[in-house]
């Protein structure tokens, strides 16, 4: 009887550990590749950005392994912590252009927090170096700033756009539906981020779904 009990206790414990492991080792379904418009970061921030004039280029916020059921998950998985030595000098100088910390200016700290929060959750598919290399390659593949510029969508304090005004040219160029994310400054809805979605392997771009981005069919300002 005692043996049976302890066997049972062992099985329950093992199962609990298994569940914890599965949850924290970060299974995910697809990737969200998020690019941000630095002037919006700086405008809604409670203190000024370190650079007096924010970059007028879309730059990387992060590459986020995501779940269909909850796109904010997984996060903060187990797995190796950020190791700066794995970001080789050439890659480092690329990332300083594509993935700068536009707010406080410490690029390394930004990469560290993105890897520790998100990158670790997809470590089974992309190790740290591959994670940063893939992200840079995704940034290179389409220049959102230029796609919008070619469609006459340039920063302006007076123009208003609809969601589809902004999505359409990007969709035309990439053949995939992106997602937009906005931030509010008082009642003005500002374009903040453009999200591309990628398959599990982070190679093939797919349509993003949902309308979570910029709510309420409200006009969007890009400035
Ligand atoms: C945008 O990035 C490119 C490099 O990719 C740089 O040459 C250019 O000066 C940047 N433009 C602005 C306005 O920051
Ligand atoms: C994410 O989804 C996968 C498979 O769909 C599932 O196994 C995993 O538990 C989910 N993870 C989280 C953190 O929601
Ligand atoms: C930038 O962040 C890194 C990583 O968190 C840290 O080691 C370094 O001291 C920071 N540098 C500055 C100048 O604050
Ligand atoms: C993207 O396009 C913008 C606007 O044309 C340009 O300033 C920038 O240098 C381009 N970035 C890259 C990496 O080519
Ligand atoms: C933008 O327009 C220029 C000039 O017509 C063209 O060379 C360039 O390829 C276009 N870029 C994009 C991203 O569509
Ligand atoms: C843009 O939309 C705002 C409401 O968000 C409105 O107050 C403003 O007059 C509009 N501007 C133009 C040029 O239509
Ligand atoms: C969006 O929906 C399409 C069609 O159902 C599907 O193929 C695709 O994987 C979905 N993308 C995401 C990111 O959920």
Automatic annotation (TrEMBL):
For whether the record's keyword set contains Hydrolase, the answer is yes
Q: Which residues form the signal peptide?
A: 1-24
Give the UniProt entry's GO cellular component terms.
extracellular region
Keywords, alphabetical:
Glycoprotein, Hydrolase, Lyase, Nuclease, Signal
**Family to which this protein belongs:** Belongs to the RNase T2 family.
- What this chain does, per the record? Self-incompatibility (SI) is the inherited ability of a flowering plant to prevent self-fertilization by discriminating between self and non-self pollen during pollination. In many species, self-incompatibility is controlled by the single, multiallelic locus S.
What PANTHER family does the record tag this protein with?
A: OS07G0630400 PROTEIN (PTHR11240:SF18), RIBONUCLEASE T2 (PTHR11240)
Instruction: Spell out the protein name for this chain.
Output: S4-RNase
Q: Which organism is it from?
A: Prunus avium (Cherry)
Tell me the lineage of the source organism: Eukaryota, Viridiplantae, Streptophyta, Embryophyta, Tracheophyta
